[in-house]
Design brief:
Layout (H helix, E strand, L loop, with lengths): L2 E8 L3 H16 L3 E2 L3 E3 L9 E9 L4 H14 L15 E7 L4 E2 L4 E2 L3 H4 L1 H10 L12 H7 L7 E3 L7
Antiparallel strand pairs: 1-4, 1-5, 2-4, 3-4, 3-8, 6-7
Helix pairs in contact: 4-5
């Protein structure tokens, strides 16, 4: 059964949105491993700060079913899709990894490129899976994080617990 990792983010009603996502993911997939929650400035647009975390769980569901479930959860919790990728959102659930699968086509983009691109994805992933090897680079997440260049990205850990 593959280990699945999901990135969770919100900058609109972020505490309620993330709590709702964790509640729904737990109801659907069972026990979750949750990273700490990070706060970061919006990238690519002016907006409220984001809360981001990563969760991991085991699932035998096919990728298509997982992505449909993530989309339904986003919609139920108020996500309205906009054409502009860089915009405020109530909830963003991204499939980051599905076991060690590498697939880049019009249906699936795994491993998700944001793992290597954004601190708010890589750092929480490294928190919960430091020894996990990236399927394309072969590097452990902790090593990738150690080598990561922050650039203009600003982020810090919060005390927010989405299970409360």
């Amino acid at each position: 059964m593959p280990r699945v990792y999901i990135g969770i983010g919100s900058n609109i009603d972020r505490e309620n949105s993330i709590r709702g996502a964790v509640r729904e993911l737990t109801a659907h997939y069972g026990q979750l491993t949750l990273s700490p929650v990070y706060e970061s400035k919006a990238l690519g647009f002016e907006g409220e700060n984001f809360y981001n975390l990563v969760t991991g769980f085991d699932s035998a569901e096919p990728i298509e079913q997982i992505t449909e479930t993530l989309s339904r959860i986003e919609s139920r919790l108020g996500r309205v899709r906009q054409e502009n990728r860089f915009s405020a959102r109530t909830l963003d659930l991204d499939l980051l990894l599905y076991g060690d699968l590498v697939q880049h086509d019009d249906k699936v983009n795994l491993p998700h490129p944001d793992i290597r691109r954004y601190a708010f994805v890589l750092s929480p992933l490294a928190d919960i899976a430091p020894d996990l090897r990236h399927p394309e680079t072969g590097l452990a997440c902790a090593k990738m994080w150690q080598q990561f260049e922050m650039g203009k990205q600003e982020m810090w850990k919060t005390n927010f617990d989405p299970r409360t």
